[in-house]
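Hi C.,

You asked whether I'd gotten around to modeling the 110-residue construct. I have! Everything is below, sequence then structure, no commentary in between.
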Amino acid sequence: QDLARMVKAAHQYPLIRDYSTRSSATVYALGRPLAYRNTNGLVRNAKWDIGLSKTGFISEAGRCLVMQVKMAQKEMVVVLLDSWGKYSRIGDATRIRKWLETSAALARRG
C-alpha cells in the first residue's frame, strides 16, 4: 500500500510524470551531458498509456516496477516486487494487462 500511495502522490507532479515516462533523455550536470535510457521498456510502446513509471532494485524487494497506467479503460497503480529476472517485470505487467482486457471484454459480452 505504501508504494501505491507514493505513486499516486508522485503522479500529481507533472515534472515527475514527464521524466519517468520518457524513453530517454539527456541532462546536463556541471556543463557535461548525461544520457539515460528508461529501464521500463513499456514506455517505448505506444500501446501502453503510462502516466508514471519507476523501476528499481533493493535487496529486500528484488527487481521492482511501479507505475500508474491506464488498462481496460481504467487508471490504476501496478506494483510488482521481487521479479525473477531483469525483464520478467515487463512480462508480468503485460500478462496483467492481457488478463484485465480479456476480463473486461468477457464482462461486456455478458
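If it helps when you're writing up: The mean pLDDT is 95.

Thanks,
B.
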